[in-house]
Amino acid sequence: MPSLNRIKQLWRGVSPWGAVTVHPSSRAKRYRFFLNESDVVRIGEQSVIECKIMSDRAGIDVQIGNRTFIGASLLVAAEKIVIGNDILISWGVTIVDHDSHNLDWEYRQHDVVQWGRGEKNWDHVTIRPVTICDKVWIGFGASILKGITVGEGAIVAANSVVTKDVAPWTVVAGNPARIVRQLKKPGE
After folding, report:
1. Does pTM top 0.90 for this prediction?
2. Is residue 35 part of a domain?
3. For position 19, what pLDDT does the model report?
4. How far apart are CA 47 and CA 82, in angstroms?
5. Cα–Cα distance between 49 and 110 in angstroms, integer?
6. Which of 23, 98, 101, 110 is catalytic?
7. Range of the domain at 88
8. H or E, element range at 96
9. Partners of residue 52 on adjacent β-strands
């Protein structure tokens, strides 16, 4: 059981597992954050964050903007995930900025044994930041893979797998996700 002092530190944004900053007008389930000491998580104003945030490698940077909702979903970072303002992310969504393993058996054959020792060799694993721009809606069960930018105002349909950038003000659906509709930009 953590001490009262440790609990107070956690709610002030000082985490023994990383630097977590949550604006006072926001709500976040910090017990769902699995971080390293050198990790940084910043959550803006009036956001509701109910997801798990997992650090797969020390030194991650996760930024979540203002008026953003993330349901019971999963953010997995080895480097950087940026989520903008005025975003809706449903439950069951996975956003990951890396491949986790190399496609070549020679480079991944020792992964499980290394995990058992609390290690991971990242030398041959592709890592690329993910960016979710402002005003995006991501439906339940969607997966957003490494290196993806979801453009402003886009909608990712439920259970879609996003493997390529999503253009602003479009709806994408499917596996792999493809444009199914253009949206009107506000003011047009």
Report:
1. no
2. yes
3. 85
4. 14
5. 35
6. 101
7. 17-182
8. strand 94-96
9. 74
Nearest to 146 by CA among 89, 107, 99: 99
> How many folded domains does the chain comprise?
1
User: Which residues, given as ranges, of the chain have pLDDT below 70?
Assistant: 1-18
Q: Does residue 135 fall inside a structural domain? A: yes
**DSSP secondary structure letter of residue 185:** P
Strand 80-83 vs strand 130-132: parallel, antiparallel, or unpaired? parallel
> Is 101 marked active-site?
yes
Q: Are strands 40-43 and 33-34 parallel, antiparallel or unpaired?
A: unpaired
- Give the model's pLDDT for residue 66: 98
- Alpha-carbon 33 to chain mean position: 11
- The dihedrals phi and psi of 126, each to the nearest 5 degrees, come to -75, 130
Distance CA 152, CA 166 (A): 9
Q: Is residue 69 in some structural domain? A: yes
- Residues whose CB is less than 8 angstroms from the CB of residue 1 and which lie 6 or more positions away in sequence, other chains included: none
| Residue 187 lies inside a defined structural domain of this protein | no
Q: Which CATH number fits the domain that encloses residue 125?
A: 2.160.10.10
Q: Which amino acid is at 100?
A: S
Give φ, ψ of 32 to 5 degrees.
-95, 5
3 state DSSP class of 44: coil
